[in-house]
Amino acid sequence: MLVPLAWMISIALKPDSDILALPPEFLPSTFEWQNFVVGPQVINFYQLAANTMVVTGLFTVGAVFSSMFAGYAIARIEFPGRKALFYAFVFTMFIPPIVTLVPLQRMYIGLGFNDTWWPLFLHGFFGVPLFIFLARQFFASIPKGLDEAALIDGASHLQIFTRIMLPLTKPLWITMTILAVQSSWNDYINPLVYLQSPEKYTLSLGMASFLGSLHAGVDATYNYYMASNLLYMLPVLLLFFFAQRYFMLGLGSLGMTTK
User: Fold this and answer.
1) How many Å apart are CA 66 and CA 35, to the nearest integer?
2) What secondary structure letter does DSSP report for 116?
3) In whole angstroms, what is the distance from residue 119 CA to residue 122 CA?
4) E strands within 78-189?
5) Contact in structure between 42 and 228 (CB atoms under 8 Å)
6) Do the domain assignments include residue 135?
7) Triad 133, 139, 142: Cα angle to 5°
8) What are the tens digits of pLDDT across the range 184-218?
9) What is the Cα–Cα distance from 176 to 171, expressed in whole angstroms?
10) Structural domain count of the chain
11) Among residues 26, 58, 226, 227, which is most buried (max CB within 10 A)?
């Protein structure tokens, strides 16, 4: 698993003359650190990174909070049809995203959101089915005596959620955050469908255009591309590296309660 990443790093640090050398050499003859400066300039990397951070941040906040609220309501609040609602959310997980692409595009065009960032993050504020499933399962594993004691003391459900449930479910929402960041940061199809202005592009589109110019032999070389690709991968890798303990704990602590 680490060999492709190591080979990327090797190419990113090689001069042009070493890239297609036969037989190939793993270690560069000279370390070309300027590839990490020149490569990103080809696609205006840092502007695209700023665009991607805005979109990813908005999607992550909306997806995590809306899904946590929905999961809490389904797991902790008694109301008619909550089980059917939960199964409806689970059912939508089996619908391939490509099936809903055209209807969503027509809806967003009708709302005047074409060539904007709205379609890239707005859906997150209405809940992500997978996250709602994870939240419901996690909340269902927490004893309801905590809710009852807080309600007797006069706490509202919002207070219970913010003061009791959020601290208890830290691994859950950290897991959601990692998944949401990874999903939005690497999203290619939605920016491709909705964005036409180059100044609004995300990094996924920028790297795709970089690869296209590489294949066409125009203004790009493999070492510049690999250097930019490593910078593109770095934020998600760092996020997982620093939060992996909570990520594994969150996945391992999910109860399979169906009540």
Assistant:
1) 41
2) S
3) 6
4) none
5) yes
6) yes
7) 150
8) 999 999 999 999 999 999 999 999 988 887 766 65
9) 9
10) 1
11) 227
User: Which residues span the domain enclosing 144?
Assistant: 52-199+243-252
At 251, the pLDDT band (50, 70, 90 cuts) reads low
| Residue 174 phi, psi dihedral angles, 5° rounding | -70, -40
Q: What CATH number does residue 133 fall under?
A: 1.10.3720.10
Count each helix (H run) and each strand (E run) in the chain, helices first.
Answer: 15, 0
Question: For residue 209, how far is the Cα from the chain centroid?
Answer: 21
Give residue-wise pLDDT tens across range 121-131: 999 999 999 99
Taken in order 199, 201, 204, 210, the sign of the CA dihedral is negative
Per-residue pLDDT of 43-73, as tens digits, reads 899 999 999 999 999 999 999 999 999 999 9
User: The tokens of 94 are what?
Assistant: 């089996």
Structure tokens at 48: 């695209």
Whether 150 is covered by a domain: the verdict is yes
* Cβ-based burial of 233 (10 A; exposed 0-12, middle 13-18, buried ≥19): middle
